[in-house]
Structure formats: structure tokens, C-alpha cells
Amino acid sequence: MKHKRLEPDTIEAVADRLKVLAEPARLSILHSLRERSMNVSELIDETGLSQANLSKHLQLLYTHGFVSRRRQRLWVFYQIADPSVFVLCDILCKQLKRHLAVRGAHA
Hints:
Largest sheet: 3 strands, antiparallel
Oligomer: single chain
Shape: globular
Structural class: alpha+beta
Strand order of the largest sheet: 1-3-2
Radius of gyration: 17 Å
Mean pLDDT: 93
Helix content: 55-70%
CATH class: Mainly Alpha
CATH topology: Arc Repressor Mutant, subunit A
């Protein structure tokens, strides 16, 4: 099966999105939001990040469309904007487990 050739600007855009996911703190935030929306205080408790650090990462995740937000009275709640991001995460986790198992078998 022949695949369509990716244009350079598409490759660059994909690489930029993967860079956003290439930060453990942001993956932790996404994982925390997988089951339910949370406000900043809940995310601080869940992730252990400082408010300033969490806010920086949430803004980047929001800008790139990984999370959305809604205001409810005094609180801003964050939620996953597109759950398909977890398809990629699940594939990578399974691939990592296979890699570690093969590596462990050869050790």
C-alpha cells in the first residue's frame, strides 16, 4: 500500500504538535484530565506542579488544541479537547512495553 507523500509544512506541523507532547509535565496534565475535567487547584494537587508551572503548560496545551476550558463561577475548568490524543498515547505505551520486554529478554 502506497502512502501519500507528506509536504514539508505538514511534517513541520506534526513535529510541532509532537514537541508539545514531549514534555512529562504536559503528559501528566493530560493523563490527569483523561477521566474528568479539573480546575487549576485540583490539577496542582493531582500533578504536584506549582501554579506558575501548571499555568504555563496549560496555556501551551490550550493553544495547541489539546485542552479546552470553561468558566464556572469563580473557577476555570480544563478538559481534554480531543480524546483521540489518547490513541497516540496508548499506542506509544504498548510499543514501549513491547520494546522493554524484548530488551529484557535479550539482557
